[in-house]
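Supplementary Methods, section 5.1.

A reviewer requested that the exact input to the structure prediction be made available. We therefore reproduce it here, unchanged from the version used in the analyses.
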Amino acid sequence: MKRTGIVIILLFLVIMSCKKESEMYSFFRPTNEQNLKTLADGEFYSWAAIDSSILRADYFLNVGGAITSYGDTVIAYGHCWSKDNASPSIGHDFDTIYSQFILPYASSSFVSYLSNLLPNTEYNIRSFAIFGDAQGNPIDTGYNPTVTKIFTLPAIDEWFVQEGDLRPSGARFDAVAFNLGDTIFFGTGDQGQNNPTKDIWMYNPTTHKWEFLTELINIRLPVSLQYRSELTNGTGFALSFFEPSSQKVIRCIYIGLGDFEGTDLRDNKSNTMLEYNLDDGSWRETSLYSGGIKSGTVSFSIGSKAYVGTGSSSVSTSDWHVFDPVADRDGIDLTAGWGQLMTKPSDIARTGAIAFAIDGKGYFGLGMDSEGNFLKDFYEFRPDDDGDDGTWTRKADFPGEARRNASAFAVGSQGYVGTGDNLPKDYDMQSGDPFPAGTGTFSDVYRYDPFNNVWLQIRDYTLDKTINTDNPKKVTRATGFSHLTYSVGYIGFGIMPEETLQRAQEDFWKYQPWEGIGK
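The structure derived from this sequence is encoded token-by-token as follows.
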């Protein structure tokens, strides 16, 4: 007990012995017009030698700062914040949380992560630096003389139904959806009773409406040798990249793999991804997928490359592959576009998994293994410098029941996963047969916080207090995606196997985590 007491006293004395921040240690620049300027939609600028920003998200803040001239005396730095203390500081404020970074660092800018914030609450935030002697021992702590006040927004945590022009057309499940910036693409899928589709829709962020874009072209399937264009249980992604040969930035969407029969037997699969050029409206086949014929794969995009993995050929698989659109377009090697990753998250072969990307990292998990066991493991992928491989790290398991065919999307720096099923491997979802005991579909949804590696349950899918408070919707094989600028996510369509009249669903819902500009 004595040792603890001494430490607290010493910390207090160190902090109290600080020089005047305005003389030596201040990051605050009085001539900076951006200091203490509050902008619309939750952005703030303050306390840095160069402009820094706070980016609002769901109950957490990313706080930016910078040090332009620190010499050898700064040994640590960061931000401290409190909802109770008007001038938060480190070391003796028990109601204050702080983030601390230890030198050396590669850049003069830094970002602190303020997590687990309460909604509708005022917080006080300021930066600090700890100064030391030549041996690295702390001497003084300097604080920004300006304390910035921010207000977290009231929580919404609601689903809102989308109708008319606010949704694509037609009931379906096993569709694809993905983003290229604020433009969203959606299409294909099974309309029910083994009726796959080929239509592709685009959400126009300017008009705030869904518009028909195009249809898939015919491809020759490797097993049946038939030419087909109707696709279900495929995968899709969008990429923007610089093409050296044309000296242009190319914007393309990619849709393919999957099954072209619509039946749950999934016995007429593809190993082809089709490329649609958004600038000239042309279709072409890419180089063949290096994982072979597959359906039920999952994917995410990071930078100018896409990553596709797992799924089923004749059996479930665990492999992952990377797509490089520049190599694919070189016109020399017909297999150069795709390459297998040397690393993979797990040796467990699976189908019905989920995947999404946040801040340059990919996330993957859940699904059903080849023995019919349901999974809840969850992984993070960090690409290497050239993006041709990377490192997988296991993260906190999904907290709900293990499942397959869930839906996922990312809003801000948070991931959302929910719905899905734990129906037996051989259950025909279009049969209308009763669920076996202990199995069924799900409506629960969870938010994943990558920084803290924690999950939090949110409002059940379609549990809108203004529409159907007591009627969450249990659905599987639905589609999830998000709108970046509006900071909202979507889940829609899917299949409800117990329905008798229309198992394939056509409703489409928007999830809004917090107050804001969500359209």
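The chain has two domains: 2-151, 155-514. These observations are discussed further in the main text.
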